[in-house]
Amino acid sequence: MSARTDLPTLLGFNPDPTPAPRTPVHEAICRQAARTPDATALRYGDDALTYRQLLDDAAALASRLTARGIGPGAVVGLSARRGPALVTAVLGVLLSGAAYVPLDPRHPPVRLRAMLDSTRAALLLTDDTAPPLPDGHPVPVLPLTGAPPDDDPSAGAPVPLDWRHHRAEPAVVDGLCCVIFTSGSTGEPKGVELPHAALANRLAGMLARHRLGPSDVLLQKTPYTFDVSIWELLLAFLAGGTLAVAPPDAHRDPQALVELIRRHGVTMVHFVPSMLALFVTEPGAGLCTTLRTVLCGGEALPPALANTLTAALPQAAVHNMYGPAEATIDVTGWHCRPHEDGDLVPIGRPLSNVRAYVVDESGGLAPVGVPGELLLAGPSLARGYAGRPDLTAERFVELPVAGRAERVYRTGDLARWSPDGHLDYLGRIDTQVKIRGQRVELGEIEATLRRHPRVRDAIAALRDGRTLVAYAVPAAGGPDEFDEALLRGHLADHLPEHMVPARVVPLTAIPTTAHGKADRTALPPPPRRRPPRPGR
Questions:
Q1: Tens digit of each residue's pLDDT (9 = 90 or more) over 506-522
Q2: CB neighbours of residue 277 within 10 Å
Q3: Any idea what the Cα angle at residue 296 is, between residues 293 and 299, rounded to 5°?
């Protein structure tokens, strides 16, 4: 292989640009609903909603929001269990012109407050899963169900919104549709600001790539704080198809997923590989014959798992997808072959209007076959991070390409081009890891642990590819005074459940390399838990 690769070859690996759509997704959904108002839009258990019913409910909510001054430029917090009310809430917020930020009520109150504060949320929409915000928090709460409270003297009478002739204002077209939070290396979660144009481009590309139409049924099962949920919630409506909504927690139950897919005739579904491995071994998975498209993402897809899936569901096209929230969900895709071999399944080629670059340590384009950091460009890029211009400037930079500067997102992922123009994912160049498809910055765990007065220094690691372990250097005292339960409790008060380490282990000092950097490879395995002392 040549040590150099000419620029036209590298640039030619990216697709030819196509006109990026400017119509916001919710406006396109209104147009589709006007064409097929009596078609089934949503199924949940034994219940069904037509497009007319769904949009009527969403427009009524949008009117309530508008009466409270919510409109273009505003951000609305959303806390609701999975179900029809959640779908209505997302569409209602978008129809009002505002953006939504999904909140998990199980997250610690201090974390939820940080999310609302950084996005300057004007309102919190919730069902009876209202998150436990600190007393006196200024964000007003509006219930999704039941009679609206008469506690806002500034609210005017709701003005009916006619979704059949809805046209978004210019301020909406150029504004935000959603803010998705991910783990932050500085110790605070970071909110990725997704503009309408980015989402419209991504979903238009998915419609074309997977040839979706009115006969398709898409399953919504991903937790709505995860970026994949955005297309799961909205894509079926753009196609004139049906959205089948899974009950809360069904995404963790492979038997329930088999039953849902067969009951509703689901044609398209997304899996994180760790969950896919459970699904394909579930009795009855091979009977999900309506599936014609299976998307995998969030974690590396092992070739053996891809082969098991294609053998179990030969009628389904299996795609390995890759993409960070900062580039609006998926940016590359690989159509898996019946017999994938090698050590990894490629993450594929850039999707519609995505430009991908692999750069070396000097910032120059790396030749074919040479690993480097993966950078992304195009209309699907996020605006940046909510309330964090410093992080935005650090991760969204300009790259000189072919004589001009282009805005790119630095993924922190290590990748390489193959000679035929697909990308291989090779890991991370920093301390970010994936836990069941969710991004976790080890630095956030470490920073949170260091804030405890009993901790002088800390480091975290992912052991065996699945178990988070933290190590703490006590501020004072010996091992007998180390209180693991206290420190895990401190972490649980500030971090979501999936980020709380299984163990917190005492160290006398953080191991370092010959260059003085922290050496995670030298961390000892967690000791076996000691039995309780007599009398305790």
A1: 998 888 766 556 788 88
A2: 16
A3: 180
Q: How many CB atoms lie within 10 A of CB 21?
A: 19
Contact partners, residue 128, CB within 8 Å, separation at least 6: none
pLDDT at 475 over 60: yes
Report the alpha-carbon distance of residue 172 to residue 411 in Å, rounded.
Answer: 28
For the segment 186-201, the average pLDDT, to the nearest whole number, is 88
Question: 378 vs 28, 68, 124, 201, 409, CA distance in Å?
Answer: 22, 36, 32, 10, 10
CA distances from 185 to 190, 215, 350, 374 (A): 9, 43, 27, 19
| Strand segments (E) across 246-371 | 268-271, 293-296, 317-322, 332-335, 349-350, 355-359
The number of CA neighbours under 13 Å toward the Cβ of 354 is 31
pLDDT in tens, 344-391: 899 999 999 999 999 988 888 999 988 899 999 999 999 999 999 999
Angle (CA) 381 386 391, round 5°: 75
- Beta-carbon-side half-sphere exposure of residue 470 (alpha carbons within 13 Å): 29
Assign 473 to helix, strand or coil: strand
Q: Strand pairing partners for 195?
A: 176
Cα 508 to Cα 255: distance, rounded to the nearest angstrom: 47
Check residue 378 and give left, alpha or beta (phi > 0: left; psi -120 to 50: alpha).
left
- The three-point CA angle 497-498-501 to 5° equals 90
* The CATH number of domain 435-522, selected from 3.30.200.20, 3.30.300.30, 3.40.50.410, 3.90.226.10: 3.30.300.30
Category of 308 on φ-ψ map: left (φ > 0), alpha (ψ -120 to 50) or beta: alpha
Question: SS3 for 207-263, per residue?
Answer: HHHHCCCCCCEEEECCCCCCCHHHHHHHHHHHHCCEEEECCCCHHHCHHHHHHHHHH
Global pTM exceeds 0.85: no
Contact (CB, 8 A) for 236 and 243: yes
Q: How far apart are the C-alpha atoms of 334 and 421, rounded to whole Å? A: 11
3-state secondary structure of 532: coil
Contact between residue 79 and residue 130 where contact means Cβ atoms under 8 Å apart: yes
pLDDT of residue 3 exceeding 50, the answer is: no
Residue 436, pLDDT > 80, answer no
Architecture of domain 19-201: 3-Layer(aba) Sandwich (3.40)
Q: How far apart are CA 366 and CA 535, in angstroms?
A: 63
**Structure tokens given for 132:** 């436990």
User: Tens digits of per-residue pLDDT, 381-424?
Assistant: 999 999 999 999 999 999 988 778 899 999 989 899 999 999 99
**The residue type at 478:** G
Where along the chain do its domains lie?
19-201, 435-522
